[in-house]
Task: structure prediction
Amino acid sequence: MTRVLITAFGPYGNWNSNASWLALVELTRHLPVSPQITTRLYPVDFAVVSQRLAEDLPGHDVAIHLGQAPGSTTVQLESIGINVSAAEVQDVGQPRPLAADGPVAYQSQLPLAAWANLLRDAGIPARVSYHAGTFLCNATLYWTHYLCERHAWPTRAMFVHLPLTAAQAIACADGEQLPSMPSTTAADALRLILEQLAD
Result:
């Protein structure tokens, strides 16, 4: 049976909740029989995530990492992780590599375009994205590929950015009107992807 690791992030900054974790909680209410799923909640902390990935990835065929993307209107299937780390705002002008001995980038080997089409056919707005940013979401995707290559683990990986929930959008401190997506819809998107992995 295919073994899938699904990770999500907890609160950070001014966000008291995280759409990725809310979607994962919703997913676990009705988990499919197959594939075999392991879930993990990660803090928004570069050092901790790096360590946890090294512990959690072995033994899994696929890793699906989830994060929230304030302002996004779609489920974004991130294809590329780049070797750039800008952990803080002041790092943006002088970013550091995530892995000094790593390649410039890794690209997901999962069929993201087909899955984006699948989600859209089901009425869920989705697209393939080719830039996961330079912060922890990108780092998670990059480190996963780097660790799997370095240790010859066969895990294929992807990162999924999810829109905020309605409650998060309403609670936005600065009053900005942000798009949202119900956690149930985000969970449905994940179930459709998991169905493909079970085939």
Q: What stands out?
A: Residues 136-151 form the longest helix (16 residues). Residues 3-198 form a domain with the Aminopeptidase fold (CATH 3.40.630.20). The mean pLDDT is 94.
